[in-house]
């Protein structure tokens, strides 16, 4: 494991091109769990100055030997994590032999063993744990890979590209040779070796070529691969149609592994996935799992063009591939919903994540621009800002340029940069040049951090029918921007979509001052100044001002500050033609009501249910014309973490009490309506993960959750029946959650039954741990029971294992970040647990430990004494003398903020 005493900061401004190019690499790997020997033969060519040394990166490697053009080479110096070669000629063939220990590699970066099989993970800097190399994305080359391994232990040998040959060797070994015809950076290298089986199918691509598609898994999981394969085929077709992009290889493989740090990895032609994003069947996966698999399979496939064919010049440009690819997978999933209302639901889900997770990141100690300027550990910058806010930035191009204009920009991007390692500026230039647009100011979205707040003021002149909107934007410095010497921030170029609605709820055709006649009813304003005025003329004269529907479809990642009245929000909730803003109006109403309740809890006042909110909820719940999936989104209360961000000083206990009060109140008051929705949305017949059935199950199971929270015995019995009679995981898990969280009498029995049924299925057992990590404490007769005690007890369960990231996440992360009220227990027990687990995990897997460390990011936002206790826990971790660079960066930034 890497341990550094002095943190080293890497700066974007320090980028320099490499001193050597690598024309080709030939890798031979003798795979052995304890000692894998790697021989790397590099065709090198000097591209920099004549005396520049070649400095290769390598970690945790045993150097066996170095040869130049067939002769032993002595100009080699090994220090720390680099190998410096001096006195090299202009061109030559370098042969480097090293050894590593995959079985001992618990970091899951580089070459490692999982359940007896070999896997690699090279992004961002894992290739250097396999061999010494110019391990940076702007060094692209072709790879030929020879894998040798024990035939019985590793019957399957896979790597990138095409299989050239396979043969048996003496001593029970065998060999496979793979060649990837495309030049690629080292982070896209992959190999897999072990006992795996596949499903496969061939398809004919748009231009008529045969393609072999495979999904590789452990033998017992073969019956859970169909959905991943279907998703892959859909993704391939979609990219052909929407972007004219075809699969460029003859063979495309997906492999699932149970030990994996992230979701999945887009290695060229050999995508490696966390089992969580591959394996699914009706009995073991929920509708949400099915949807996630579809989206992650598509995401990795889409990287083949946005990431692999055109890659990043350096890691500061990460959003070039990630923001763009998330945008593409979001659009794909929206199209797969098959309806306009389905598209809106997908948009709502994506914005919910952005606001719940990215906005806080952008306001905390780790705040960074979409294209960061510095990092200590690059793995810490695979963030919601780079991914999800990056996707919003890409979406804004499409909003500004239109779908066709965006497509022109994409075409030009590939025309210019296919086969290259480029920057976010290159992408922006392609968008600008293809459309003849000036996008200079738009570049600020890449360089400035923080969430802009847009304040809207309206002035209505009824006599002339003129509505004047004054928009102003502010975005104070955050995180690193607050340090001395950092430049002042400039106004963003914000595409601000809006509509105006009349008293009957109709969209008005809009005519801006200076336009000859009225046009479309939704307009995208180019809002580019600190304060700017927009005027709409020839609106119906006399009467009341039209009601503005602001930031339609969430056209920019900003906060809109506008004082709607409750009545206006209720009106928008039932009338806005923009489905996103209908949802938004409901969320604003609920947030307002909840924040009032929180204040009441804090002041020890009696809590009262707001009748206006109840009736707004009733209208949505009983409106059979609305897509059930939309209703589910609209009836879901804002998350506790979201509410915490909306408070000046966060009080997690009061938030929890207030939210639970509202939930129980809505459950009791609307019991008949919830029950009717429950009955009306059954999905008889065999389970099917189609959009319509998923929507019905979502609403039905939401209703069940509310009903169980009413505390009524008959409703808890209903949850019990729902559990017993379910024929799919969506229903079964929803019922289990309802039973567990409402402390229903059937709770313990159902938990035990669930464990027994699925004991052999790791992903389902993860759900079982996770549900218990997130369970409420102190409800009714269980008042005073702390979830931390359950969590600590579950850490001792024979099925718990800290080394497996999915399992660690299922219990520890679900408690620390999915259960705010219990995690922030006043006695500090949650924080002590956090510190224990960060330190324990850091000794095993720094990447996973650093993710857990981020739970404390917002410590300064909490009330006393929580804030002080959080700081103490952070300091305890920071004081450790053996911290990884990963965790050190997170805790030191948190403490110095
Ligand atoms: N590039 C991957 C994706 O977005 C992310 C990823 C997978 C990753 N594994 C990783 C990033 C390990 C850092 C470390 O699809
Ligand atoms: Zn990605």
From TrEMBL:
Keywords: Aminopeptidase, Hydrolase, Metal-binding, Metalloprotease, Protease, Zinc
Segments forming domain Peptidase M1 alanyl aminopeptidase Ig-like fold: 450-562
InterPro entries registered for this protein in UniProt: Aminopeptidase_N-like_N, Aminopeptidase_N-like_N_sf, PepN_Ig-like_sf, Peptidase_M1, Peptidase_M1_dom, Peptidase_M1_pepN, Peptidase_M1_pepN_C, Peptidase_M1_pepN_C_sf
Domain Peptidase M1 membrane alanine aminopeptidase residue range list: 228-442
Keyword Protease: yes
Aminopeptidase N-like N-terminal domain boundaries: 26-188
GO molecular function, one term: zinc ion binding
Cofactor: Zn(2+)
A GO BP entry: proteolysis
Key word DNA repair present: no
Enzyme class: hydrolase
Enzyme Commission code: 3.4.11.2
SUPFAM superfamilies the record matches: Leukotriene A4 hydrolase N-terminal domain, Metalloproteases ('zincins'), catalytic domain
Catalytic activity: Release of an N-terminal amino acid, Xaa-|-Yaa- from a peptide, amide or arylamide. Xaa is preferably Ala, but may be most amino acids including Pro (slow action). When a terminal hydrophobic residue is followed by a prolyl residue, the two may be released as an intact Xaa-Pro dipeptide
Domain spans labelled Peptidase M1 alanyl aminopeptidase C-terminal: 566-895
Family per similarity comment: Belongs to the peptidase M1 family.
Protein name, UniProt field: Aminopeptidase N
Species in which this protein is naturally found: Cupriavidus metallidurans (strain ATCC 43123 / DSM 2839 / NBRC 102507 / CH34)
Classification of source organism: Bacteria, Pseudomonadati, Pseudomonadota, Betaproteobacteria, Burkholderiales
Gene name of this polypeptide: pepN
């Amino acid at each position: 494991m890497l341990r550094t005493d002095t943190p080293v900061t890497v700066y974007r401004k320090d980028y320099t091109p490499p001193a050597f190019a690598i024309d080709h690499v030939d890798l031979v790997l003798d795979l052995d769990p304890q000692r894998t020997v790697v021989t790397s033969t590099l065709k090198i060519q000097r591209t920099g100055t004549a005396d520049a040394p070649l400095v290769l990166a390598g970690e945790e490697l045993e150097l066996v030997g170095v040869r130049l053009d067939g002769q032993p080479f002595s100009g080699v110096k090994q220090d720390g994590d680099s190998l410096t070669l001096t006195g090299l000629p202009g061109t030559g063939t370098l042969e480097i032999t090293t050894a590593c220990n995959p079985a001992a590699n618990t970091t899951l970066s580089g070459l490692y063993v999982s359940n007896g099989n070999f896997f690699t993970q090279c992004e961002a800097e894992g290739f250097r744990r396999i061999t010494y190399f110019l391990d940076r994305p702007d060094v692209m080359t072709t790879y030929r890979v020879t894998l040798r391994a024990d035939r019985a232990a590793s019957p399957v040998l896979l790597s990138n590209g095409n299989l050239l040959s396979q043969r048996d060797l003496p001593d029970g070994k065998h060999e496979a040779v793979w060649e990837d015809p495309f030049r690629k950076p080292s982070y896209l290298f992959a190999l897999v070796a072990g006992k795996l089986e596949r499903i496969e199918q061939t398809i004919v691509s748009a231009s008529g070529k045969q393609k072999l598609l495979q999904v590789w898994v452990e033998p017992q999981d073969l019956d859970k691969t169909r959905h991943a394969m279907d998703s892959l085929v859909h993704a391939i077709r979609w990219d052909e149609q929407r972007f004219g992009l075809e699969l460029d290889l003859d063979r495309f493989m997906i492999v699932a592994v149970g030990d994996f740090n992230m979701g999945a990895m887009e290695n060229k032609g050999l995508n490696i996935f966390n089992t969580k994003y591959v394996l699914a069947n009706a009995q073991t996966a929920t509708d949400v799992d099915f949807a996630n698999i579809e989206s992650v399979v598509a995401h990795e496939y889409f990287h083949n063009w946005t990431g692999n064919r055109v890659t990043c010049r350096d890691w500061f440009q990460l959003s070039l591939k990630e923001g763009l690819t998330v945008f593409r997978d979001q659009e794909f999933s929206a199209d797969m919903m098959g309806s306009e209302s389905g598209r809106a639901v997908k948009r709502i889900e994506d914005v919910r994540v952005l606001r719940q997770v990215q906005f806080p990141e952008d306001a905390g100690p780790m705040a960074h621009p979409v294209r960061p300027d510095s990092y200590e550990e690059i793995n810490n910058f695979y963030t919601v800002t780079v991914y999800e806010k990056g996707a919003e930035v890409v979406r804004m191009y499409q909003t500004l340029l239109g779908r066709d204009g965006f497509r022109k920009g994409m075409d030009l991007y590939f025309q210019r940069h296919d086969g290259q390692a480029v920057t976010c500026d290159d992408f922006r230039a392609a968008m600008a040049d293809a459309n003849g647009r000036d996008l200079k100011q738009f570049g600020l979205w890449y360089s400035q951090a923080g969430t802009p707040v847009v304040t809207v003021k309206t002035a209505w002149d009824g006599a002339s029918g003129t509505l004047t909107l004054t928009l102003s934007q502010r975005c104070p410095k955050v995180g690193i921007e607050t340090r001395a010497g950092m430049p002042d921030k400039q106004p963003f170029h914000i595409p601000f979509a809006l509509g105006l609605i009349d008293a009957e709820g109709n969209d008005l055709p809009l005519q801006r001052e200076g336009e000859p006649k009225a046009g479309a009813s939704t307009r995208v304003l180019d809002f580019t100044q600190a304060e700017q005025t927009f005027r709409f003329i020839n609106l119906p004269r006399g009467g009341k001002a039209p009601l503005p529907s602001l930031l339609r479809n969430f056209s920019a990642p900003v906060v809109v500050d506008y004082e709607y009245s409750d009545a206006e929000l209720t009106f928008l909730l039932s009338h806005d033609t923009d489905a996103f803003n209908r949802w938004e109006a409901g969320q604003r109403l609920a947030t307002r009501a909840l924040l009032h309740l929180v204040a009441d809890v804090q002041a020890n006042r009696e809590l009262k249910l707001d009748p206006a909110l109840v009736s707004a909820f009733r209208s949505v719940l009983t409106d059979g014309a609305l897509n059930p999936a939309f209703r589910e989104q609209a009836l879901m209360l804002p998350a506790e973490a979201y509410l915490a961000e909306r408070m000046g000083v966060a009080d997690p206990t009061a938030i929890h009490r207030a939210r639970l009060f509202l939930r129980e109140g809505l459950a009791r008051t609307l019991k008949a309506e919830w029950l009717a929705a429950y009955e009306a949305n059954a999905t008889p017949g065999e389970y099917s993960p189609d959009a319509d059935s998923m929507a019905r199950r979502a609403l039905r199971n939401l209703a069940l959750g509310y009903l169980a929270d009413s505390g009524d015995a008959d409703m808890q019995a209903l949850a019990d029946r729902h559990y017993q009679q379910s024929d799919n995981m969506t229903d079964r898990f929803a019922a289990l959650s309802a039973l567990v969280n409402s402390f229903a009498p059937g709770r313990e029995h159902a938990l035990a039954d669930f464990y027994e049924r699925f004991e052999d299925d790791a992903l389902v057992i993860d759900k079982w741990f996770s549900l218990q990590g997130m369970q409420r404490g102190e409800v009714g007769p269980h008042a005073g029971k702390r979830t931390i005690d359950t969590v600590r007890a579950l850490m001792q369960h024979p099925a718990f294992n800290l080394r497996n990231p999915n399992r660690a996440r299922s219990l520890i992360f679900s408690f620390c970040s999915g259960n705010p009220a219990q995690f922030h227990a006043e006695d500090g027990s949650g924080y002590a647990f956090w510190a224990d687990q960060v330190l324990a995990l850091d000794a095993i897997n720094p990447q996973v430990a650093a993710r857990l460390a981020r739970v404390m990011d917002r410590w300064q936002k909490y009330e006393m004494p929580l804030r002080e206790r959080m700081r103490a826990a952070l300091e305890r971790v920071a004081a450790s003398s053996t911290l990884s660079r990963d965790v050190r960066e997170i805790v030191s930034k948190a403490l110095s903020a």
